[in-house]
Amino acid sequence: MKAKKIIVIGGVASGPAAVAEARRTDSEAEITIVEMGPDISYSACEMPLYVSGEIANSERLVRYPVDQFKEHFSSNVLTHHEAESIDVQKRVVTVRDLATQRVRDLSYDKLILATGSGAVVPEALQSSSRDVHILRSLQDARSVVDTLEARTIHHAVIVGSGFVSLDVVESLLHRGIRVTMLASEGRVLNGSLDGDMSTLVVDHLSQQGVSVRSERATSLDVAPDGSIRAVLTDVGEIIGCGFVLIAAGTRPLTELGIRAGLKTGKSGAYEVDSQLQTSAPGIWACGDCIEKKDAVTGKSIRAPLALNAFRSGRVAGRNAARSGKGRPSRLEPVVRATAISVCGLEVAHTGWSVEEARNVGLAAVGETIAHRSASSLANHHPLSVRLVADPSNGKLLGAQIIGVQGAAQRINIITALLRTGATVDDLYNVDFVYSPRLAPAHDAMMIAARTMQKRLIGKR
Amino acid sequence: MKAKKIIVIGGVASGPAAVAEARRTDSEAEITIVEMGPDISYSACEMPLYVSGEIANSERLVRYPVDQFKEHFSSNVLTHHEAESIDVQKRVVTVRDLATQRVRDLSYDKLILATGSGAVVPEALQSSSRDVHILRSLQDARSVVDTLEARTIHHAVIVGSGFVSLDVVESLLHRGIRVTMLASEGRVLNGSLDGDMSTLVVDHLSQQGVSVRSERATSLDVAPDGSIRAVLTDVGEIIGCGFVLIAAGTRPLTELGIRAGLKTGKSGAYEVDSQLQTSAPGIWACGDCIEKKDAVTGKSIRAPLALNAFRSGRVAGRNAARSGKGRPSRLEPVVRATAISVCGLEVAHTGWSVEEARNVGLAAVGETIAHRSASSLANHHPLSVRLVADPSNGKLLGAQIIGVQGAAQRINIITALLRTGATVDDLYNVDFVYSPRLAPAHDAMMIAARTMQKRLIGKR
Description:
Two copies of one chain form a homodimer.
Chain A: E1 5-9, H1 14-25, E2 30-34, H2 47-51, H3 66-72, E3 76-78, E4 81-87, E5 92-97, E6 103-107, E7 110-113, E8 117-119, E9 132-133, H4 138-150, E10 155-159, H5 163-174, E11 178-182, H6 195-207, E12 211-213, E13 217-222, E14 228-233, E15 238-240, E16 243-246, E17 250-252, H7 255-259, E18 283-285, E19 292-293, E20 300-301, H8 306-322, E21 337-342, E22 345-351, H9 354-359, E23 365-372, E24 382-389, E25 396-403, H10 407-418, H11 424-429, H12 444-456
Parallel strand pairs in A: 1-2, 1-7, 2-3, 7-18, 9-16, 10-11, 10-16, 11-12
Antiparallel strand pairs in A: 4-5, 5-6, 8-17, 13-14, 14-15, 19-20, 21-22, 22-25, 23-24, 24-25
Helix pairs in contact in A: 1-8
């Protein structure tokens, strides 16, 4: 019997996970992974540690260098190759070698799309200046570091206020560079944090000397030698700077599949079933380029997170390779849960914010409380907890937690409960540990739950 | 209509909570709280901070001084009064004023027993030496501090290795006193930690210079002037010391109720229904002196923890005061979950250890893994996670987590899941946050869950 041909397109996180699981499932298959950039199998989430200079060598972000990956998974690796088109009927992918521009056809029995997501750069801000950057790939990170280390930069402008922006703020401050952040409506982590919690982060950034401005960047002033001079804004300001990062949003990279007729959802990501099969026979998809099912509401959502990339990669890899043998894997519904360290502040969220829930027509109310991380008699620091619940039945929809320490692990508690359809009462009833040096007699989450209970029974 | 008379016996944690809730429920009731010691409404869990000298004044552990308590809850407070007997038929409690030895009868309509638990001191170690202490009440703590501050103590012996012992080790080290701990079988936190996790704590104590010995104390050598000279052990050792703490276990204080015919369970604590009513009409009980229902197994257990004291106090207070009006409160089944800071190490547990589960006839297997608290490229420290599960169905029974930071909050995640009857798969599926500086791509609990999954499907 001829070995099955499996092609995986996309090499960062989900693609390599798919290769690994496909190899575990079928030791005979001929597996090829195709990646546009020079690297595969690296940790994009850790790039801020490299941009900051804490890690000197970008290779430390690579889990498997190409040669090791080939050997470890007995697979072919085509880096610097772009997949240009898919012939769904003939089961052929056309790829271009970006070094030679040579085009060739690769036939497949099973295809896995793991093309991820890409930066959205407004047209007016597109620039070939060596000082204007995005940060999606490891190559982007190397380019950023080259710029930062080529000469002394005093002031940087970051366009956008999401996770990448906040990561890079910390990296730039670490290098002693002053930062201005252009944040839509003066808000950060929109979609994760409601307004009051965003304000806590903005205040913290301001205390670190970051200038957070609510203007919109309208154009760039680039000198004839290609260096940046300034960012111009919608109120006519000219913000002089030596470095610009555009991190104004991401979108799923699905043009390849769309051209081949694959269905996408409202978010632009591929529609897949619970086994991660796309609308086309023989084609699976995984990672940032697919829609997942939200565990809280059952809605289709994008959830471009590392853990989802690994997990969905494994599901797609197994199902593509199994050929009807054994049980298919399924991707469990997901909860969007994130944490980020912002200049020494832990900022974490899970599930739905009030604003986001209302945007999709869900009834949602929020309550925010402040409490201590530990006993007032021991070392402690302030924690802010915001809960989001459905007022009709008390069901938890999400939470946001900010503090010097412990926010990330506390958010995991709510995530665990969200998966079970828990109510505010269920959160209140958790037997939170108490130890004066570690946790107060009544944990901040218990107090938040109690506050929400009172709100919901109309006692306030 | 005559105001209802409510008497609460026991003034530390559960009793004051019962008074507060009774007052909220019935603004007219005549409420009296009876306490043997001089203090009411204090935080016993914070006593180690006073013993260590971090808090100079014991009054800071008191939430409501007697006068404030009286005023705030419009209640009578009888400190230095011991309840000697209950006449269940006549609804009378006989109390003795410990200052005057005067005895008198107090009649009640509703009675709440919140007598807590007391230290078990082996007969051979009972002593009136000013250097030999227990640590249960705030008076005990003052007595300990008086001894520690009266003269220079170089070496202390702690008999026992439970929570109080570990708390006091840290307090004594903080004062520069060398410590020997006599730990049954060389183990600490028996009942909470399985052997391998106990070893991690013992190793840490040893690194701090604490001598942990598995001998048993058989007698005390007390000088004619009442000062301690040495602790003698079952292998004939003579351990010279200037201070001894006996913290060899606790038992529920239920003699009062037993003499009045109230039913107790196997543990010696009062049997109560979910509304916390005892077997006698008109008598409720709460706190450390009652049995609770375990949320994991449905078994009756003791769970002498502060949060249970507050919660059960509120339930008993409301139900005793409501007189058929409104809905009765119920005490939810509980999960035993604890955390303690041991000389900079967080040690946390929830639910059942393997040994404890097997002791009551439950099938249980354990798996322990070691992982990092954060990305290997960022600051991180080791974490050890032990999961306990029912091998027949993968249901989680408990967990133990030890690490420099984050163990206490991580254990809350498992506690939240234990309340839902979750399996190891449910734990694995939690969307743990990932952020290089805060949490690794695969959280230690996810790796522990994966390891247990493999064990349970016999792949190892």
